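Action item from last week, closing it out:
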Amino acid sequence: MAEDEIRGTAQGTAPVPLSVLDLVTVGAGRTASDALRTSVAIARLTESRGFHRYWIAEHHSMPGVASSSPAVILAHLAAHTTRIRLGSGGVMLPNHAPLVIAEQFGTLEAMAPGRIDLGLGRAPGTDGATAAALRRSDRLNEGADDFPEQLAELTRFLDDDFPDGHPYGRIHAVPGPVQATSPGGVQSPHRPPLWLLGSSGFSARLAGSLGLPFAFAHHFSAQNTIPALDLYRESFRPSAVLDEPYALIGVSALATDDEKEARRQVRAAALSMIRLRTGRPGLVPTPEEAEAHEFSPMEEEFARSWNANVIHGTADEVRSGLDDLHKRTGADELMLTGNAHSGDVRLRSYELVADAYGLPTTSATS
């Protein structure tokens, strides 16, 4: 596997490659179809402006997040783009049989050869009851504890290299390498690179020990970012995948034409998160609804704390915040996620960031 399928190249004056994490958020008064159309528009825009990759995050049972099926959405995006890397940020492996994931991402690789990433997490991406329904089991800790074994099984399905005598030795993930060994078979040389995702030290250490690239959820676990990255780098062992560590971080960032408007937008997004954290998930509220909402002292403190980790403001302010974050963390790539009620606001944010860094402009894909 070539390292250039993992490492990106910084464009314009950006300190590192810029990428996108999309939750396919649904605002009040909008539909999931609207949200998916926004995702296509953002993918096409960011591809034309030199962003490196576009990932979809797996979430369940959240009305304001329409990304329950990353593989399906990625197939849709693959049909509307030609160059940008597409991947999961991530698939929550304990929710799925490893063979199913190998088949899904083998199919995506066949659709968009050399452009697919497989990012994996061990959290459920939802509440415990929903996770139990997904897994048809209430032994949720067992799934997380078994993550290294599930990862090893998935890797063997992707590489089609179970040892002789293994119970799965005669089972093959298709599309996959087995097609090259069949009579007359020809198979793509590409296989989706694996990434480990995390918000603490567990996956950081595991990714380092396996020599895999690592993605850290700075956007909701900022206090753990530097310790996790340090642990990843200290644990790293060169592998067939990477000679040196490669870590990206997810960053909440929203740029608007006016600083006041940025504050309005992120306050509405914070209200959405408050409702989620208190067991009342819903659609992302409008800024007007957030302005009319009477925040309790506890809600006000949560909103203040949450938005302290959201880089927001004018394009210049967001660029400065991203530059500072890169200097503090030494991340090899910044993956931006902009949470706002309006798809137009999210689209404009990525355009403003691209302009602030002087990213190239190429023709839109068909």
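Closing note: The first strand starts at residue 18 and ends at 22.
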